[in-house]
Amino acid sequence: MLIKKLGDYVKRVLKQDMDFQPWSDTSKLPLVIREQYSFYLVDLFNSNLLFAVAMSELPAPNKIAKHLAAINSVFRGTVVFVSETVTAYQRSQLIEMGIQFAVPDRQLFLPGAGLDLRENFPDRKLTILKKFYPVTQVAFLYAMYQPAGELLTPTMIANITGYSLMSMTRAFEELRLAGIGCHEERWKERCWSIDNKAAAWEKALPFLRDPKKKALYCKNIAQLKVLALAGQSALAEYTMMMPGANTVVATTREIWKARFAAMGCELAQKEPEAITVELWAYDPQLFAKNGCVDALSLYLSECEHGDERAEKELEGLLKQAVD
Hints:
Layout: H1 2-14, E1 21-22, H2 31-34, E2 37-44, E3 47-54, H3 61-72, E4 78-82, H4 88-97, E5 101-103, E6 107-110, E7 115-118, H5 134-144, H6 154-161, H7 165-177, E8 182-186, E9 189-193, H8 197-204, E10 212-218, E11 228-229, H9 231-238, E12 248-252, H10 253-260, E13 275-280, H11 295-302, H12 308-322
Parallel strand pairs: 3-4, 4-5, 12-13
Antiparallel strand pairs: 1-2, 2-3, 5-6, 6-7, 8-9, 10-13, 11-12
């Protein structure tokens, strides 16, 4: 039975049991949809999902989109279409349209939860791994700042960092497939640890991203000075280097929009007394220390600085952080 295969698949890759319950509101759907799918509700990582299991082959993606709209008129939540197989065309179209789907033993595409696991061959391959997702980088950095060998779980890091359990579980899967750290199962949950930080850093480095996504120039107002120092300003705090002419701080796009954008302090261009605000892919306050962004994130954001002395200081800072 396809729904059982799905449950076994999710348990294997996410280490989570699936308790499928028949959906009681099926009768509210049009007959044409009821004839094509069976529906099951499940709670996965404290999120209610409705799985629409195709009784035969999935219809064309444009029809699936119409079916999704009809189902969402009754069920105000995440709908996941399930099929035994999908064609390459269907897969690409569903992904492009953002329609969530699952093919047991092949793919689990839940972008709303940060999941895109693919198994096209018996040995799992991480098809998305050019650079880690920000949540994966956060999990990695968190582990790097813990004592060597300390066992960590998705629940533990999710609670501390504010990411969802689903996203953090996906991050653990990325780290496992990248071969970083030691992975095992204890207490019916994934556990992960880093025994050798220097080795883990070298292995992870090709997947780690510069956290900076954009830089803004802003008026020098007191409200911005609560943000963590970044860039050359942070490097000056960590080392004997002189700070740059302009103070550099960091936050996320979301925090900027929520707390600072309405102040009207953004400038059209850089001015002598301006503050540079870097917008990061993850919250720099998660690992900030003494008012500065953490050493490893600073290294990632400045390692291509272009200044020989700055790069030498960054290498020294990195060595201290990973030893």
